[in-house]
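Lab meeting, item 3. Inverse folding demo.
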């Protein structure tokens, strides 16, 4: 309620200004509201004076975000240079501390910059801002204490280093990571119920195992005790839940008595097949519920921003309130200054289909969704060759080449060559390498000639081909000119194998694989989000692991008779850790620690690593590895699995949203679709053969082939729709798929949320 009253007070301040300057300031404020609605910046309470608004716009500009991302990456990377540093990268302590101090100064200036345009009372009670300030204070205290002890020759631990990722989470720019962590925390109470049930079941079976097998003097093959105490029994059965030591743990008892297998079968059935699957179901259900509530709240907040923008620029005093076209065009110019007037005209006609020259509240509330539809304005493509050598480029032989390259058979031909190249690589036919290299070089040259460099390098696969084939060609020429190997034969073969990755593109064109490939492409931003969540935990555990186990395990330390090594500690003699040659699985620097974190996430053999460190320290070291498994594997990765399931279901049932459909229709009606020409007959539009909104992302399927123009009969709805294809050289192309993570999440729950409109409208801010 306090937030809402403050907003109304701020807007009223704008209304009280003189009219000659009030309209411009209202327009600026309305544009900020709509940008926030489009970008998902909800709940940010900033002052509405002109200076504060301009500061807020500057705060959200690209270069500020880039610098912040770089500083955070650099700050986290300091672990590479701090003791224990990566070999060859060690820096003096005073150097790394100076670098960290620079980062802290930037963080402080960044948050003070945000405070300068925010409502003071609300800004300093925001949890994320409080967290950032507390972390900055703790790191500063740690630095001061460390310098004090270090100057007196006392070695101390830098205990604040695991706190560094908290800065990443709590800055405004990382709101998706913060949302994911917030939903994980809200899911924890129900998760804990299942975890407690699992631990109780393991404890019960541990007691049973002690009674059944503890008095039989059984041992594992490596000589270790078999169910001799409760701690080891619990750990072994917990590992069995992860399936990492199955069936090794059963073998001693099974060899002694076949009926013993029944114990392990019952345990696996109850704990693995039932409880763990219930755990996944609970994670999926609760995380989905919490995420849906988040999206419902964000949609309400978005509508609230749009409503405030509408109230600022609407025209009153007429028979009905609404936004007039001039105000709409001026507003759009502030929101998207790089867009043309044609783009604004299309959006206006979409929002004003009846031609009333006014947009009402309901229509205006859909503006943010329309602005979030990926749309590109494509001018008529004129290559540099066509610009400087028009006669040559437009000659009959040149037109024939262009027609051939644009035809779909050109793509089919080189797809076939890629397949043949893959077969030759599989059969190790090296004599054909120069032939394939020449053919692929010819393909690139033909595409560059036909489409020009600007259009060519807009496609991912074109850039990929140019880099791989260009590097391979230069490498091969240098190899021939030097008349001897330049020690790069393996690199050349690797580059040629990379070319075969274009098989992914071919597979993406097959309908049965299309959903999978499209899901992977659209999940890109979300994978980054959940990758950051996982990285936050892994970085924290890696730093803690370096402090707990750093230097205890080494690779080349001979400690025994003969030339045998035991990873630097005789306690590892004859252990599975040493026999498996895991000496490099250590915490001696941040890179090796992060490698261990990744290996533990895969689960296989994680108990061997845990047991190895338990031998060089104590059995309590297993708690560190168990806790990591519970947090990162059982919880975070299962939640990510739930998210992928939702995304796959969304893509499987994919259809164009109403915003895309209506924009596509309107663009076609105006003759401004990519490849469109002036209408030749009534209700006839000349279009590119490929749809305006493709079924696949352009990075999967190139749009540079088969650009023959077809005459499509499109029945136009009643009304006069001017053919603008002769008035402008602009052409529009819509891209399918979500624009960002916020858009993907909203699509996931679009149908369900639309069924709860009353609940949504009454949802508290």
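The presenter then showed the designed sequence:
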């Amino acid at each position: 309620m306090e937030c809402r009253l403050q907003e109304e007070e701020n807007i009223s301040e704008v209304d009280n200004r003189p009219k000659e300057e009030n309209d411009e300031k209202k327009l600026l404020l309305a544009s900020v509201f709509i940008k926030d609605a489009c970008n998902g910046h909800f709940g940010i309470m900033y002052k509405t004076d002109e200076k504060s608004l301009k500061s807020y716009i500057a705060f959200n500009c690209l270069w500020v975000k880039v610098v912040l991302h770089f500083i955070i990456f650099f700050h986290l990377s300091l672990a590479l240079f701090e003791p224990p540093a990566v070999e060859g990268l060690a820096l003096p302590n005073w150097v790394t501390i100076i670098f960290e101090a620079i980062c802290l100064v930037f963080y402080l200036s960044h948050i003070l910059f945000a405070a300068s345009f925010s409502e003071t009372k609300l800004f300093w009670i925001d949890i994320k801002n409080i967290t950032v300030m507390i972390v900055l204070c703790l790191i500063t205290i740690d630095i001061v204490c460390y310098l004090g002890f270090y100057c007196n020759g006392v070695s101390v631990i830098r205990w604040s280093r695991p706190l560094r990722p908290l800065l990443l989470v709590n800055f405004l720019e990382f709101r998706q990571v913060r949302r994911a962590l917030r939903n994980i925390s809200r899911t924890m109470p129900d998760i804990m119920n299942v975890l407690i049930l699992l631990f109780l079941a393991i404890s019960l079976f541990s007691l049973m195992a002690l009674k059944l097998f503890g008095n039989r003097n059984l041992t594992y093959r490596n000589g270790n005790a078999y169910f001799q105490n409760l701690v080891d029994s619990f750990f072994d059965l917990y590992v069995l839940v992860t399936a990492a030591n199955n069936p090794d743990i059963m073998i001693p008892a099974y060899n002694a008595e076949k009926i013993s297998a029944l114990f392990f079968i019952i345990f696996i059935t109850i704990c693995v097949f039932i409880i763990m699957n219930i755990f996944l179901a609970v994670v999926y259900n609760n995380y989905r519920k919490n995420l849906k509530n988040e999206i419902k709240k964000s949609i309400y907040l978005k509508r609230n921003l749009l409503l405030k923008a509408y109230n600022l620029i609407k025209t009153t005093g007429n028979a009905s309130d609404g936004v007039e076209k001039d105000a709409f065009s001026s507003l759009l110019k502030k929101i998207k200054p790089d867009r043309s007037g044609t783009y604004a005209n299309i959006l206006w006609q979409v929002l004003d289909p009846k031609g009333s020259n006014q947009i009402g509240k309901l229509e205006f509330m859909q503006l943010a969704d329309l602005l979030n539809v990926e749309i590109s304005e494509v001018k008529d493509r004129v290559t540099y060759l066509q610009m400087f050598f028009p006669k040559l480029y437009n000659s009959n032989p040149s037109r024939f080449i262009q027609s051939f390259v644009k035809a779909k058979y050109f793509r089919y031909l080189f797809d076939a060559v890629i397949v043949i190249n893959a077969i030759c690589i599989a059969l190790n036919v090296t004599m054909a390498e120069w032939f394939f290299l020449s053919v692929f070089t010819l393909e690139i040259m033909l595409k560059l000639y036909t489409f020009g460099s600007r259009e060519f390098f807009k496609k991912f696969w074109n850039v990929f081909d140019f880099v791989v084939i260009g590097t391979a060609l230069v490498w091969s020429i240098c190899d021939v000119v030097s008349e001897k190997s330049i020690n790069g034969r393996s690199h050349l073969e690797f580059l040629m194998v990379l070319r075969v990755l274009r098989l992914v593109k071919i597979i993406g064109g097959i309908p049965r694989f299309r959903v999978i490939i499209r899901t992977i492409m659209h999940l890109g931003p979300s994978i980054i989000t959940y990758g950051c969540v996982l990285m936050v935990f892994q970085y924290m555990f890696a730093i803690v692991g370096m402090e707990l186990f750093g230097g205890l395990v080494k690779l080349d330390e001979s400690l025994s008779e003969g030339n045998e090594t035991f990873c630097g500690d005789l306690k590892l003699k004859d252990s599975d850790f040493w026999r498996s040659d895991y000496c490099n699985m250590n915490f001696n620097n941040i890179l090796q620690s992060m490698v261990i974190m990744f290996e533990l996430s895969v689960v296989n053999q994680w108990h061997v690593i845990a047991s190895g460190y338990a031998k060089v320290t104590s059995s309590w070291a297993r708690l560190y590895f168990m806790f990591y498994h519970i947090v990162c594997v059982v919880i975070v990765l299962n939640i990510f699995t739930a998210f992928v399931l939702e995304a796959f279901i969304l893509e499987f049932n994919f259809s164009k949203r109403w915003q895309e459909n209506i924009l596509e229709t309107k663009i076609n009606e105006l003759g401004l679709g990519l490849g469109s020409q002036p209408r030749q007959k009534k209700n006839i539009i000349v279009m590119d053969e490929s749809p305006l909104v493709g079924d696949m992302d352009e990075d999967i399927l190139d749009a540079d082939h088969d650009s023959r123009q077809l005459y499509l009969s499109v029945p136009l709805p009643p009304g006069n729709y001017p053919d603008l294809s002769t008035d402008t050289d602009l052409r529009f192309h819509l891209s399918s798929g979500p624009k960002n993570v916020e858009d993907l999440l909203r699509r996931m729950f679009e149908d369900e949320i639309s069924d709860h409109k009353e609940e949504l409208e009454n949802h508290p801010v």
